[in-house]
Amino acid sequence: MTTLPSPDDILETYDAQAQDYARQRNRILFEKPMLDRLLGAAPRNQSPRRLLDLGCGPGAPLATYLADRGMAITGVDGAATMVDLFAQTLPQATALHADMRTLTLGQTFDAILAWDSFFHLSPDDQRAMFAVFAAHAAPKAALMFTTGHAAGEAYGHAAGAPVYHASLDPQDYRDLLTEHGFKVIEYRPEDPNCDFHTIWLARFTG
Known about the structure:
The chain is an alpha/beta fold. The chain has helices spanning 10-24, 32-41, 62-68, 80-89, 123-135, 170-179; strands at 50-54, 72-77, 94-97, 109-114, 137-147, 152-158, 161-167, 182-191, 197-204.
């Protein structure tokens, strides 16, 4: 009998697959229009503007694109090998080996990004993440994250290894954002212009 992956397997899987993942990662940057939306929404509280990249992976191409546009990047990943790759890719950035679910950096950021990372968490852990987002959000900070388009669990692959995904109902995400002081700017379910990703962009109103 095949054992399905669970959210508890994610960090170990990405740690083991990091090198292959980095080699196979799509570099076309189909995410560019949404990254530009994030850049446009992020306030200029400080110069350079600060970005917290949760589940940063190897740092290319997303963090590299944002760093090239003047953002000071702090990359966080629970997979140690991913953090090492991130530090090699972006030596000028801050690279932290930490679990996003328990993150307490004691500082705030002008933008927070959780692209193709947050949706590996269990539904309960996803709900708890909104307090983490809020704790690290500077005034009017932009928050962008990807989810599924409907409530449920699914299974995919990372460099050939099976991985777990989960999503809440879109209304649950709206309610959680409102509860934690965020206002939805944009919601794009299964955007055909972004490889059918479901994307949220919100602003922290605190």
